[in-house]
Write a structure and sequence with these properties.
The chain has 264 residues and is of the alpha+beta class. The chain has one domain. The protein is 61% helix and 9% strand. The chain has 6 helices and 5 strands. A 5-stranded antiparallel β-sheet has the order 1-2-3-4-5, covered by helices on one side. Strand 3 and strand 4 form a beta hairpin. Helix 2 runs antiparallel to helix 3, helix 2 runs parallel beside helix 4 and helix 3 packs antiparallel against helix 4. The longest helix is centred in the middle third of the chain and has 70 residues. It is rod-shaped, with a radius of gyration of 36 Å. The chain starts with 12 loop residues before the first helix and ends with a helix.
């Protein structure tokens, strides 16, 4: 029967019967004093497949890992990989300023949180099944990783919501300003509409006495005054552009959590 467990491992037969060709969910198995951990590697965004990582502790307390050497070092390195991944995403979150930036962090942090949560559950079950000091330390590290990844997801989601709300508020202000400017233009049009209508009906050939007065300079003065008045009205009506400065919410980093735990 084909299984992920290396053929050279002298594990109980029950282990080989319960482990198939794929990783399945993260879990622990105990049999006759032996412990087998079936864990997942670091998740990759957009890839639903999870790489299996097997760690075996025999009844004498010796650890082995599939393709990663002997001893408990590979299992510690497995958790270190998750800690470094959380730190990388926290650095990205700290410099995020747009909705796309927050979404990218959230897209990567969500599977990381799910995997770290199941990792903590598996190590907790292993700790309850076998009394081993190393498992206690690994379980505690996994708890810090799970908490940090949970905060990472929450901060990324809050940042995304905040950015969306900020943009919606800015758009609402622009719409309100445009409505006010439209009202100003309608008021101006209402004031001059009767004059324009009368001029259209009776034409502009009525004698006013200005036809020959300072001709043609008066004509150009009136044209210039009209142009200046138009620019003045444009400046009064034009909306004021106030760029929205993005505000990044504070990030609760894994490093801060570790420091608080150490001080406690």
């Amino acid at each position: 029967m084909k299984t992920l467990i290396p053929s050279q491992w002298t594990v109980p037969k029950r282990f080989r019967e319960r482990v198939g060709e794929s990783a399945g969910r993260q879990r622990q198995m105990t049999e006759e004093g032996h412990l087998l951990l079936v864990l997942h590697g670091l998740p990759q965004p957009g890839n639903p497949e999870r790489a299996a990582r097997l760690f075996w502790r025999d009844k004498a307390g010796a650890w082995k890992s599939a393709g990663q050497g002997t001893g408990v070092g590979p299992l510690r390195a497995h958790l270190t990989e998750f800690e470094e991944a959380v730190d990388r995403h926290e650095d990205r979150l700290r410099t995020a300023s747009t909705a796309a930036d927050y979404f990218d962090v959230l897209k990567a942090a969500t599977p990381l949180h799910r995997t770290s949560r199941n990792l903590l559950r598996t190590l907790q079950e292993a700790r309850e099944a076998i009394d081993d000091r190393e498992l206690i330390n690994l379980r505690d590290r996994a708890g810090e990783i799970e908490r940090a990844s949970e905060l990472l997801v929450a901060e990324a989601r809050d940042g995304l919501d905040y950015t969306s709300a900020q943009q919606a508020e800015a758009q609402s202000k622009v719409s309100l300003q445009l409505a006010r400017d439209g009202h100003k233009l309608n008021t101006i049009a209402a004031v001059f509409l009767p004059i324009t209508a009368l001029a259209s009906i009776f034409s502009m050939t009525l004698r006013s006495g200005l036809e020959t007065w300072f001709s043609p300079w008066l004509f150009w003065v009136i044209v210039g005054a009209g142009v200046a008045l138009g620019f003045t009205m444009k400046a009064r009506v034009a909306p004021s552009e106030q760029p929205v400065e993005p505000v990044t919410p504070p990030v609760k980093t894994r490093r801060a959590l570790v420091r608080v735990s150490a001080e406690a």
